[in-house]
């Protein structure tokens, strides 16, 4: 989808979304594009400034990503401090807890993608914990 800045013959400005430039041209030729303000179907594309990332925007993004990584690390730390590590038994233990066959408690461990899919199909809520490079040291 492409967003175009549009204008009518009465100088009203508005936006429209189209599959392609050709899609806009085809609809405009058939009179299917009209101004939401006055209803005119004499509509053209306005010049649009390209979206360019500045150094300041990149810096803001980098800071936000750094903050997000810190928060994720803190969340993983809290899970590990407050839950039982069950290793490769994770899928089995999670299913037992879910169906009331074992004491309800927080757990974490390892599971294959197939195990996770089966747990989700059984209605067991699971969430992957990210592994950070420093976790391998």
TrEMBL record:
It holds the Pfam family DUF1178. This is DUF1178 domain-containing protein. It comes from the Bacteria. It comes from Phyllobacterium ifriqiyense.
